[in-house]
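1st attempt posting a full record on here, be nice pls
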Amino acid sequence: MSTPVAPSHAGPHIHEGASDRRSWWILGLIGLAQFMVILDVTVVNVALPSIGKALTFAAADLQWVVTVYVLFTGGLMLLGGRATDLLGRRRVFLVGLLVFTAASLASGLAWSPVALIVARAAQGFGAALLLPSALAIITTTYSGAQRTVALSIWGAIGSAGVAVGVLFGGVITTLLGWEWIFFINVPIGFVVAVAAVRLLPAAQPLPPARVKLDLLGAATVMVGLVMLVYGVVGTAQHGWGSGRTLLLLGVAGALLAAFIGIERRGREPLVPPATWRVRSLVSSAVVMLGTTGILVGAFYLNTLYLQNVLGYSALKTGLSFLPLALVIFAAAHLASHLLPHAGSRVVGLGGLALTAGGALLLAAAPDQASYTTDLLPGFLLLGTGVGLVFVAVTVTAMADVRHEQAGLASGIMTTAHELGAALGVAVLAAVAIANGNPVSGYGNGFLVAAAIAALLAAVAVVALPALRPAPGTQASMH
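the predicted structure (as tokens):
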């Protein structure tokens, strides 16, 4: 990765042993911003019936409340990462935060389906700026064992935020109304913005002549990803072999191929071709994409199963996912201690094996499953596995990335996370409804999830480096 960037963008480090309390405050600030954005991937799911009724959504259009957010977030993430490197991490972080917060207010105030979908797209744009700049701040602020701890916490929030979103969605929708799943972001965003101005160092901006964003490449990859997800989402209704599906996937393939050509010929490419030769980053992104797809797809299938088959309320559904969220955090904490001793490949493989095992347990659930005996063991295994994998690949991905390109690398990882979320729901949902039986379809969906975990394990064996970061015993933040 060789695109030159002014050294001033690297920002100061908080080295190991530093007695600076800002280290914890910055990590808490970035973690809160990330949690707010990741939460919005799933917090809406439980509230969808209430939103559809209040705004008179057509049944076929309701899924776009979730999908448009993920598409804009994932589709623009590479642009956000590149902008982070060129324009400065704090500046992009603040702009993304303000856009996201304002769009959250607009979402809660939406008066029609179109108004809500437009506001959700704006939320996705803000998130596409916010997430890569936040991860780049962590990567360039901490070093050594502190970086392992910070990235472990980032990985835990990324996975557990998906789980907590379902819980919060049920609680907030039941107690306050669907609007408050968006309104809650407004005071949080304001507090984070004020704290960011005080805590995050400002970078010297690059000269305007050097700030050149590859807008053609950004537009091409975004539309290509949108066509890809739109085509996969439609398979639930139209099938994989339909003309519509084949056309959309063909257009997506052509656009993504065009993006590769644009990047190879461009003077200021969005993603320099050398980026794809950084094995630790690329293999981690692949595993991140697939694991996120399994996790978010699992929440989607279980939300439908708990409410439509077992008759759970929105609140009870949300509370049912609390053990899963807790075990993800616990596993992420465990991973930060295991990495220096076992290495990232072993931790990642162990996590994928547990993820596959959890999916198989859920696939074996009977028609009228008991939550405690049939579902909870699968939740705990899957959550433990995901927590281990997310930390292993997050730490590994950033290991060989130079500070001046931390934004781009962060954009690649967060793109993998968001794209995985969109594709995971689309693929597992399409499998689950293929035979028209919600119970057997639930099992089929988790069989596919287990197969995906096995394929990711093969990728990890071949390509994931065996990184051993600095021992966690030195990683305390004062």
